[in-house]
Write a structure and sequence with these properties.
The chain is about 5% helix and about 45% strand. By secondary structure, the protein is mainly beta.
């Protein structure tokens, strides 16, 4: 069975700075985010488990689109009211009320970063090679992740890593990033294809 991971991702956008206030200010100005990504999943002993590729779009305050296109095809769409997931291999769609599902996930910090410091403790940035890393520690100890780390180079987001409660690390490396472009709401609409099973409401 293919290992497929929803990025509760996917996805933060900050700029390198030595003060947390600069991070929060950058997020506050972010209205839309679009990028391609390569995702690598590592086990707790740093063994590479899977590499996949896709596209992510986020629009403030609550719209989200994540599409994996290689090596499998998997789609997640949040339209502000419902969260849709479409597994093309299984020909199955799962739909849930969006509610608060995405509010405290790293992905939606891109779309609704009202108060970063209210949800995360921001550690002192660390320089590794040409990249400056920020580590964010969730204040909610009941969440799915124990840390989210963000890497920047010359004010450009390069990578994000999320470490879960089992020590597994999901790493995303970004390219073709576009900030604050006009992404129409229709990009976040989803209609189940004919003939697929639809579970939920």
């Amino acid at each position: 069975m293919k290992f497929k991971t929803l990025i509760p991702f996917l996805l933060l956008l900050l700029m390198p700075a030595v003060q947390a206030s600069e991070l929060t200010q950058y997020l506050a100005d972010l209205k839309t985010f679009k990028a391609r990504f390569m995702q690598t999943i590592y086990s707790s002993n740093n063994e590479k488990k899977q590499v996949s590729y896709g596209v992510i779009l986020v629009k403030s305050p609550d719209r989200f689109y994540l599409s994996y296109n290689k090596p499998f095809q998997l789609l997640y769409v949040a339209d502000g009211k419902k969260l849709w997931s479409f597994d093309q291999d299984l020909e199955q769609v799962v739909v849930k009320p969006q509610g608060d599902i995405l509010i405290n996930t790293p992905a939606m910090l891109l779309g609704n970063p009202k108060d970063l410091t209210a949800s995360y403790k921001i550690e002192k940035p660390v320089k590794q090679g040409n990249w400056l890393w920020f580590e964010l520690i969730p204040k909610d100890e009941n969440g799915s992740f124990i840390s989210v780390s963000l890497a920047f180079e010359q004010h450009k987001l390069k990578a994000m890593e999320m470490k879960d409660n089992f020590g597994q690390v999901t790493r995303l490396e970004f390219d073709s990033i576009v900030k604050n472009s006009n992404i129409p709401d229709r990009q976040f609409y989803f209609t189940p294809p004919k003939g697929v099973d639809v579970l939920g409401q």
